[in-house]
Amino acid sequence: MSFCTTINCMDGRVQLPVIPFLQDYFKAEFVDSITEPGPVRFFDETTDPAMLKSIMTRVDISVNHHGSCNIAVCAHPDCAGNPVDDDTQKEQLKKAIIFLKEAYPNVNVVGFWIKDNLHPQKYC
User: Fold this and answer.
1) Labelling 43: which of 5, 7, 17, 104 has CA 20 to 30 A away?
2) 3-122 — its CATH code?
3) Residues 6+ apart with CB under 8 A from 47
4) DSSP assignment of the chain, as one string?
């Protein structure tokens, strides 16, 4: 069995295209989905430390117990859970990737911007 991990918005519009895309992109059989409303905002440790800890606990399970060696961090425009402009969200996405690469130096971390057409595009 092979796993990858996604940290993605809870928005159902982005859930459906992301899972099969990541299965193909990472050649993974299963996708561990960690969802929150607008999750990239939580990687600024001052925003909500308890939420960041919760997300990281779930990533730890995926990486350390399921053997995931790929993490995808996803963000999308018009996010109700993170109602900021696209440029701000993309900066948050970059910070999330940096944070995760530092936390998991032996894991491949990739960012994806889920455009209006709901097709994930590699961002970082």
Assistant:
1) 17
2) 3.40.1050.10
3) 41
4) --EEEEEEES-HHHHHHHHHHHHHHTT-SEEEEEEESSGGGGGSTTT-HHHHHHHHHHHHHHHHHS---EEEEEE-SS-TTS-S-HHHHHHHHHHHHHHHHHH-TTSEEEEEEE-TT--EEE--
CA dihedral 70, 79, 45, 16 (to 10 degrees): -20
Domain spans in the chain, listed from the N-terminal domain onward: 3-122
pTM score above 0.90: yes
At 119, phi and psi to the nearest 5? -105, 120
User: 28 is written with which tokens?
Assistant: 């993974």
